Description:
CATH architecture of the largest domain: 3-Layer(aba) Sandwich
Order of helices and strands: EEHEHEHEEHEHEHHEEEHEHE
CATH superfamily of the largest domain: NAD(P)-binding Rossmann-like Domain
Shape: globular
Oligomer: single chain
Radius of gyration: 21 Å
Largest sheet: 8 strands, mixed
Amino acid sequence: MSGSGYTISEHRPDASETPRLANPDAFKGQTVIVTGGTGKIGLQICRSLAASGANVVVSDIRADPVHLLVKELTAEGYSALAVPLSAVEGKKIVEQTLQKYGSLHAIVQPIIAPFQFIPFEKMPAEEFRNTFESDVMGPIAVMQAAWPHFQKQKYGRIVNFTSGAIFGMELASTYPTTKGALLGLNKTLAEEGAPYNITVNCISPVGLYMEKQAKGVQDMLAKANGPFLKASVPVANVPMVLALAHKNNKASGEIFYTAAYGVFRHSMGMTTGLTDCTTVEKCLEKVPGIMDRGFRQIMEPFSAHALGEYQAAYFLGTEKDFKAPSHL
Length: 328
């Protein structure tokens, strides 16, 4: 914690803190770009991919940590390329990758910009712009540069990173705003990528070195669930990240919450709701019923089109016969 700002822990695990998480040849012949590759989770992803046979492209805005990690990986006999660039320079990252390896199969993007703990009314607009540029435009730039290549080869795996902060994070409005922006893109790209065997998913990780965090952050996190968070070290997120980047993965458009070697599925849906909300007074009267958590039947639309079809079916009273692609 520096002033009112949140900064990532400076703890840098050595190789002994990265257990083997996949078979040595699980990613043999695969080239994977990891943006934010020297962060607390990114570093573990790079090490695990390298140990699983991948050509690992380590990209991050901080040049020294990038070169240090690649030096360590190559000294161990692994294949790695240093690309010390911000993700917003996605075109250059992809160009250098293809120039070196002639191929690209997956993109993993554990990017997180430092953010401020400031009340919303005092949050400078520039903070929103800076965080959006890093956490949203960065991943977009890399994906756009790689997308034509993925389409041509009819294969691609993309893993972006969101956060549980999308459910609300007091005094840190920039962070959940940017992480939430990736969710709509996640579903959209999953639809566009499906004909080309391109899968796009989001990971919502918990990755902390509790003893290495600044005191203020430790206190805040300990109030949530201290023992659980102590088990939620960064590497505990990596198995699911690699699974989504693997050639055998078929899931797409999904959001997975990972922590302490556990995996949970985030869902976005719509309750059965109430009709006849024809006046302000009726809407106000019906809000408690609409909010009633007893409405447990949740419609999870695969797309905006499916959502529209369901809404129309509900209006007509035929929702029980609704057959559009969905999870109920």
